[in-house]
């Protein structure tokens, strides 16, 4: 009898359920073509939407920062980890997002965990969309507030909860993703803002997949809907379209002051490394200078989606470059993903419990770094595998 037998049993049951994971190894940069487990494949599964994760300008900024600042911040921000680069980045992001102030965290997940907990207490109610990201769910769990969940994007359900419960709480915080990562659909932010006004609620939008993608130069879902000044807390990640690592909340100055005193990732975890901060500054500057990157992303996304539709694939109701190719049965979804890999195309299969049972899909993530040739070759692979596995009949 070993003390860790209970974990061994858990791992065994993963294997018998067929959901045991072996990590693929990427031997190089995360770009349009990657070397995955020693094989060159077209990468249709990264969040590096704009190709900035390995853009020469961004890489040079990181290298220069290492020469000047070294590789680690050396401390939490509240002691001596607050390098001037972080202040520069936060001012730049506030300008980019057209908000009063920005507070950066070590990741988007950290930002949600630190912020939701700090801005709510036991007199409050948090109402969260059923399909919100895991980091929001964790942030909500850490809060002392009462919790409620509304059906995905169902404004009638949200209003029912508000009618019933608003009066019992000091503040009510409505939380939603801006872009939902599994289907690529948008939250109905204008309706959420209207309900928040009617019932005097706070609004919190996690725009991890909208930042760098939607709105002018990738300013995000709030910019896309023309709602500047209407959302109280706007979260973004620096790890997806921006191409580096980190997260932030764009909000009012006074919220930033409060977070500095109460957001636990700022108080108890080391600040972002200077190379990452400098690289992020460069990425954001590039977005502010030109719409080239976001335009290329959308051009590629429209091209690829139209080709999939022409072939007869069901690609759901995405409003973004996230393209779920609906397959159905979980086992068939995994078989589809594996057959694509045999054709030299990597697309991750997404199945239960990440999505509902037998709502399996191969989720394509389009990037500005894909060439037309990459996309055409990927389409040929989809056509071949789609026919073989009877997903399409051309
Ligand atoms: C990816 C994601 C995060 C986490 O961001 P990281 O910077 O990778 O930690 C948070 N929220 C949403 C909605 C996401 O899609």
Search tags:
394 residues; alpha/beta; 7-stranded mixed beta sheet; 13 strands; globular; binds pyridoxal-5'-phosphate
| Uncertain runs | none
Global outline = globular
Mean pLDDT: 96
Q: Compute the gyration radius: what is it?
A: 22 Å
Number of strand segments:
13
- Major sheet details: 7 strands, mixed
* Category by helix and strand content: alpha/beta
Going across the biggest sheet, name each strand in turn: 3-9-8-7-6-4-5
Question: Bound small molecules, which ones?
Answer: pyridoxal-5'-phosphate
Succession of helices and strands: HEEHHHEHEHEHEHEHEEHHHHEHEEEH
Sum this structure up briefly:
The chain is an alpha/beta fold and 394 residues long. The chain has helices spanning 5-16, 56-69, 77-81, 84-97, 108-119, 134-142, 155-165, 189-198, 221-224, 253-262, 264-268, 274-289, 292-311, 330-342, 372-388, and strands at residues 33-36, 39-43, 101-105, 125-129, 146-150, 172-177, 202-206, 233-237, 247-251, 322-328, 345-346, 348-350, 360-365.
């Amino acid at each position: 009898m070993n003390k860790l037998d209970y974990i061994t049993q858990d791992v065994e049951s993963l294997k018998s359920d067929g959901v045991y994971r072996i990590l693929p190894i990427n031997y190089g940069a995360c770009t349009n073509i990657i070397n995955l487990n020693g094989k060159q494949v077209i990468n249709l599964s990264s969040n590096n939407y704009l190709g900035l994760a390995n853009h020469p300008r961004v890489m040079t900024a990181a290298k220069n920062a290492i020469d000047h600042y070294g590789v680690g911040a050396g401390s939490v921000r509240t002691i001596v980890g607050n390098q001037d680069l972080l202040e520069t980045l936060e001012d730049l992001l506030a300008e980019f997002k057209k908000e009063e102030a920005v507070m950066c965290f070590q990741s988007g997940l950290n930002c949600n965990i630190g912020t939701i907990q700090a801005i709510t207490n036991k007199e409050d109610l948090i109402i969260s969309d059923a399909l919100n990201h895991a980091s929001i769910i964790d942030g909500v769990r850490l809060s002392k507030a009462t919790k409620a969940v509304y059906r995905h994007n169902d404004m009638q359900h949200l209003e029912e909860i508000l009618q019933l419960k608003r009066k019992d709480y000091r503040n009510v915080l409505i939380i939603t993703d801006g872009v939902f990562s599994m289907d690529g659909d948008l939250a109905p932010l204008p309706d959420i803002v209207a309900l928040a006004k009617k019932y005097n609620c706070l609004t919190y939008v996690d725009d991890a997949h909208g930042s760098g993608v939607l709105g002018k130069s990738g300013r995000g879902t709030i910019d896309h809907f023309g709602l500047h000044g209407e959302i109280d807390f706007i979260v973004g990640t620096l790890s997806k379209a921006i191409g580096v690592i980190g997260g932030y909340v764009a909000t009012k100055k006074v919220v930033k002051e409060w977070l500095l005193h109460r957001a636990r990732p700022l108080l108890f975890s080391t600040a972002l490394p200077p190379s990452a901060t400098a690289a992020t500054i460069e990425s954001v500057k590039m977005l502010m200078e030109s719409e080239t990157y976001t335009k290329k992303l959308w051009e590629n996304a429209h091209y690829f989606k139209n080709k999939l539709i022409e072939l007869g694939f069901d690609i759901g109701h995405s409003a973004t470059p996230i393209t779920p190719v609906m397959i159905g049965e979980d086992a068939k979804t995994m078989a589809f993903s594996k057959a694509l890999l045999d054709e030299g195309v990597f697309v991750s299969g997404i199945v239960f419990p990440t999505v509902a049972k037998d709502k399996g899909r191969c989720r394509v993530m389009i990037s500005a770094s894909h060439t037309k040739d990459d996309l055409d070759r990927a389409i040929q692979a989809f056509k071949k595998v789609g026919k073989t596995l009877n997903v399409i009949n051309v």
